[in-house]
Structures are given as C-alpha cells and as structure tokens.
Design a protein that fits this description.
The chain is of the alpha+beta class and 156 residues long. It has four helices and four strands, in the order H-E-H-E-H-E-E-H. Helices cover 30% and strands 16% of the residues. A four-stranded mixed β-sheet has the order 2-1-3-4, covered by helices on one side.
Amino acid sequence: MKGIITKGSFFVALFMAFMALLPCGCGEEKVTVISFYSKESKSAKEFEPVLKKAKKEYGDKVIFKHFDFKDPKNKKTLEKYYVSMDPSYVILNTKGEIKQTFMGKPPEDRFMAAISGLIPSEKGKSETSVETTPQVPSQEPSSSTQTLPPAEEQSP
C-alpha cells in the first residue's frame, strides 16, 4: 500500500526531524570546540600542543571538531560560524551557541579558560561565565576625573 504512513514510520520520521534540528554536538549537551585551519598554517601547527592539552584535560566533557580551512566543501560551515581567517577556533556552549571565537592563534590561557568556563558542573550549571557583563559607570567621579571650572557665559 503506497502512501500509507504507519505508526512506527511516523515516529521514526518525527525522531529524524527532531535530530536534524539539534545544534552542533547532536544534543549531547557538551561544549564544542571547532578548529578551522589548513595544513599549511604555521600558527595552527604552533597551537597544536595546546589543542592536544585541551583534549587530554577535558576528555569526554568537550567535543572537538576540525574543518580544513581551504577545503571548498567546508565553505558553508565557515560561513555558518563567521570564520574568515586561517586559523580560527570557535567555542560553542552546550546549546550549540557561539560563545567565543579566536581568529588567529589564541593565547593558551584565554583559550583554556573559555572552554573550562562553559563546562557544566556536577549540578548541571555552568561553573563560570565566559561572557562579560557590561560595566555600568558609577555616579561618583573617578580619581582620574578632573572637575573643570564653569564656562563663562557669553552675552548675545
């Protein structure tokens, strides 16, 4: 019987549609680090020990992916993550949202802190936040602020 949808095939189709909508990381609720670099990138070769260290330190808590920067098949992925420089490193939170992008070789401490700040703790909450909160200026003048004398009034 052509065109008849069975109960089982409906749920399989529904499951497949749901899986297609999940962000990068496939719903595993893990931080994801995506590296974009070419084989020729000197900076990427210099940064390779840091990537290995991160993989070793964070083990199965973080998903690591790599895309060749120069491979034309990766053009859409480069555009999706706004990558325009070889090398680049994109860090996604557990929801698949971009939280940090490094264009060029990042400083090791900032790279590692960006990852660790997004890894959920045992209680299921993020230990620290990588995002910075805008600072609201205080109403009090700072020590470097100078008070100027009032401007002279000019008569018309």
